[in-house]
Amino acid sequence: MAYKKYKLYWSNESINNLEDILDYLNNKWTTREVEDFKEKLRRHIDIILFFPEIFPIS
Known about the structure:
Elements: H1 12-28, H2 31-50
């Protein structure tokens, strides 16, 4: 079964927030921990893009 992948559009505010979060984590965590976090974030975003209906609208 083929699944449709949706597109994600980042607002300027969300981009700035993510950059701030990553800056903070880079100061508090090891490089490996930050990379693990980014990979988990990418996987979660992929799930949202393929199956957006399983999440509440916000």
